[in-house]
Amino acid sequence: MLGYVTVGTNDLERAATFYDAIAKEMGVGRMMEFPTFIAWGEMGGAPGLAATKPFDGEAATVGNGMMVALEAKDTAQVHRLHEIALENGGSDEGAPGPRGEADDNGMVFYASYFRDPDGNKLNAFTMAKASAE
């Protein structure tokens, strides 16, 4: 159902550096590129992510309560994505680790939270055995 998520940017080159690094770790690259818009992912694959300068020409602003969640393959990738985000101009919103209690199968939501250079909030998450770090 979900095709892709778009975040606004005021500096597409800076956003491209940030999201190129995130996409590389996720095993994808750019799937569309225009002067004011870049999308990462695979055509026909999982939902993608795009960064764009707003069509109306106004400044991009951060949506309150809006967050993009990136599904990681394991807890190690949750950690790598958090590190990559911080190394590429992002800011920390929550270190990698388990969130909440384990479910009946002993699985826990494992996530990290960060913002891109424009202030858009993202997280990297996976489900992991409750003892996983």
Automatic annotation (TrEMBL):
<dbReference type="InterPro" id="IPR037523">
    <property type="entry name" value="VOC_core"/>
</dbReference>
<dbReference type="Pfam" id="PF00903">
    <property type="entry name" value="Glyoxalase"/>
</dbReference>
<dbReference type="InterPro" id="IPR029068">
    <property type="entry name" value="Glyas_Bleomycin-R_OHBP_Dase"/>
</dbReference>
<protein>
    <submittedName>
        <fullName>VOC family protein</fullName>
    </submittedName>
</protein>
<dbReference type="InterPro" id="IPR004360">
    <property type="entry name" value="Glyas_Fos-R_dOase_dom"/>
</dbReference>
<feature type="domain" description="VOC">
    <location>
        <begin position="1"/>
        <end position="127"/>
    </location>
</feature>
